[in-house]
Amino acid sequence: MRFVIVTGLSGAGKTEATRNLEDLGYFCVDNLPPKLIPKFAEACVQSEGKIDKVALVIDIRGGVFFDDIFESLNYLKRQEFKYEILFLDASDDVLVKRFKEARRSHPLAQNGRVITGINLERNKLIEVKHRADLIIDTSKYAIKDLREKMNEYYGTGKEVERQLSTTVLSFGFKYGIPVDADLVFDVRFLPNPFYIPELKPYSGIDKPVRDYVIKHEETKGFLERLEDMIKFLIPNYIKEGKRQLIIAIGCTGGRHRSVAIANEIYERLNKLNYKASIEHRDIHEDVNKGAKKL
What we know:
The protein has helices spanning about 15-25, 35-45, 70-80, 90-100, 115-125, 125-130, 145-155, 155-160, 205-215, 215-240, 255-270, and strands at about 1-10, 25-30, 55, 85-90, 135, 165-170, 185, 245-250, 275-280.
């Protein structure tokens, strides 16, 4: 089990770090009273592997309970329970700026100056910082930079790849372009099964239509180029922190060509081990107009 205790200064990025750990598959608990850490750790062990990655956020929001953290950590050490401490830090001027931009008061400042609360908190966290396994100073980090750092220390390549949820969506231009599409590809240049009487009643899901669409050289060339583009784009989208990608494939009615191409792209994405789903928005629009399923 990987057991991470996330702590540090208010405003230093604990919330964003925790969100990233959740994306990496960690079971996260925010603001758990430190006195309960040993019992929680024991419960995780008793889960028999069902919980193998845990992150606990512990900070001065716990008030008087925060002082119990050292007793709990010492207990874990005596029980030879392995844990890591991640400490988020930032410079005073950056923290003051963040609090002012968010129009929030510091938890220890009450009605006083933000810098007073920061100094009190920094002194209170000195010993915890000394015990930390990893200290990240977020003073010059944008959100995406912190995400990359978290991925580096707490994720694996496979987990990071699968953070991006990709949907391949077929549609018909005559019903409108999907408003949430990130990438839109027009496949109306491909030979159209609609004009072949024996194929017209079926959809791109059915083998005869799919085989007809895929067999043409222009289709094969398009698929190879599109796959290369997607393979290039996805790692860069992940790097920039994108969490969802909608790839929209459109033909005239959204029943034949776009469906066949979308299915092919969906299968190729899964072979590349990307988390992909498939949706055919307009495939049933003409069902009541004589279309049928094979």
